[in-house]
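Fig. S4 source data, part A: sequence.
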Amino acid sequence: MDTITHGLSGTLIGYAARDKFKKIPPKLLVYFFTLSTIFPDFDILFRLVSEQSYLNNHRGITHSIVLLPLWGILLSLFFIVILKYKIFLKKHTEEIPTLNKKTFIELYIISTIGIIVHIMADLITTYGTMILSPLDNQKFAYGSVFIVDLIFSGIIISGILLAKFYRKYSQSPKIAQIFTAILIAYVGTTQALKINALEKAKLNFDLEYSEEYYSFTTLPQPLSPFKWKVYAYHSSAEVFYSTTINLLDKTETPSWDYVSKWGNNADWQPLAKIAWKDDNFAQIRHFFALPAFHSIQENEGSVCLFFQDLRFSNKYVSNPFVYGLCSHESGLKTIQKLTKL
């Protein structure tokens, strides 16, 4: 989920919980919940190391339920500093609570709830979240909501606006609680739609081999929760079959496209396999869940073989995750991101 939506979800939770905390005033409650739900995305600092480092560490330790108690304590201490020195709180100095054990406990609860809400919102997308890091770097993803979902964000924004400006509910948590429930119901609905999309795809899949040899992946598409992309991967043949499902079209008969993991040009397939297994490409291999050969670029003194992650391939926007291994005449090998598709 994008960071802005994370922050807005914290704002909505803050309005919904305004009668649950005795020490933290309502305005500060919204403020701290918003900061808490943004906090895990501070792993963007890994970009200062390298693009590949960010790819492999984003949604890692800051999104870990293993480290959740630690992050809750550190974030609570940060909030204590904000309150003590009135950082960004000049308009709310009269609302600053007494700093004591009870205040810290409430800040800790706010911090941990905010981080959990962030983690849960990331888990429902396709990117993958390492919730067991650093013990295990396995990425978990339910993949029922597109990473930028206008309906998901719209529900949050509507709840915030009504909770803030609708006079009847401006001091009540009820409207925010209702929209929080609507948001949860929407996520549950997308999961049911995902199951239906996979069932529809399988009914129209002309099996070249027995179904047991295929692994299926169902991915949400932008703009509509009724549109899905389904991939069937045969590990032995190393090929993908893909189709797009529109659950609103009852007469639709899905057609399947063929995608070879190593590309359709037999001359380049051996080189593609070598490039993919190269040690310099290890971080990209770790990140890609549905890797497939994308293209080759030959420049003076270098050859670059590019791969894409099919999770992020759709007809609406260019795939942002296309990386290549470039071999130079000097013997140097570098990783390059394809910026012009």
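Fig. S4 source data, part B ends here. Strands lie at 214-220, 227-234, 239-246, 257-260, 291-299, 302-309, 322-328, 333-337.
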